[in-house]
Amino acid sequence: MTQSPKLTGHLANFEPAIDATRQKREDLYKWFHQHPELAMQEVETSTRIAEELAAIGYDVTPVGATGQVGVLRNGDGPTVCFRADFDALPIAEDTGLDYSADPALGRMHACGHDMHTAALLGAAEVLAQHRDAWSGTFIALFQPGEETGAGAKDMKDSGLADTIQKPDAVLGQHVGTMMEGYGVGALAGPVLATCVQTKITIYGSGSHGSMPHTGIDPVVIAAKIILSLQTIISRGVDPQEMAVLTVGAVHGGDSPNTIPDSVELKVSTRTYTNEMSEKINADIARIVRGECEIAGCEREPEFEIVGSAPEFWNDEDTTATVMAAFTEQFGEQTRDFGRLSGSEDFPTIANAWGVPYFYWVVGSNSDPDAPYNHSPKFAPDLDPVLDLSTRAIIAGISPWLMRG
């Protein structure tokens, strides 16, 4: 067995429980892995989480469609919330693991959310078994629908902040190949990107392909728009800033000899700040409307936001606090993974209460060429990543809850 670093100092008291619950934690992980459910459809997973929390003594409250929140009160002290997500992706698994999800399901835990869930349940049980070693309140929050960006918003809109007591901080982690080896940590400031996904409908006027002069061709308008949108980043954004614009889908017409009435574009943008995001999306709208006006479209284009993720900035003080604890516990394995252009809805949970947050990564594989998250072959090294992820939760919350 590959060992993750043992907890030391005042956290060493938790090691016997971590060892004793290892088999249960691995069995849970394999069960979640073999029972993947898509965003906002995680009924079976949610039920299992609630049952496990109740069995180890947590007060369990469902929040939203499938969200679950377990609260363990242990005397006076701070309150810390730790969030794990648990939805899967619409990808057929091709890992070859002996606990692989059935490829016929067409879905799998290709992003490590099963690991997040099992690790948090494991840490929650360890805390329940060792109440003598800490004081305060621990909130184990299990969030659905991260992959679509709907889950955190659903919990927030369903009264999370009114139902669950306000924590002093919200913490979270993600396993993945974006962290070298089995590293643990992150950095302050922008870590992931805010994202806006927009469906744009361009309305022309259909006609026969042999008589293009009798209509207004939305395909040509769409082509001009797609080319023009590329100048937003190359000519409208400071090269020192990160911004990505992608036209990911174009749909219009069914026949090679017919000019359709409309064309649909699906566009996504990613930036590190809301200010830059608003600028880029305003530029998109300006260009689309301008090209439609030039072409003489009789109907205004339509814009529908179909997905989004919030601005993501790790709080400086919270980052410094947790990273100091990581350095003490994990030594040279403590590092950051830089900044990514991917997106996450995790900040929405902390923002529901208006409290600071910190989100880190645990390296998922020793092989630097291991398949990346969202690959049908993505498979974290069960040993030692599950133990390491569990220990990282204990270490991360220790500055608030642990008795030194």
Automatic annotation (TrEMBL):
All residue ranges annotated as the Peptidase M20 dimerisation domain in the record: 199-291
GO molecular function: metal ion binding; N-acetyldiaminopimelate deacetylase activity
Cofactor names: Mn(2+)
GO biological process, one term: diaminopimelate biosynthetic process
Pfam family, one: M20_dimer
Taxonomic lineage: Bacteria, Bacillati, Actinomycetota, Actinomycetes, Mycobacteriales
Note on how the cofactor is bound: The Mn(2+) ion enhances activity.
Keywords recorded for this protein, A-Z: Hydrolase, Manganese, Metal-binding
The protein's name: Amidohydrolase
Presence of keyword Membrane: no
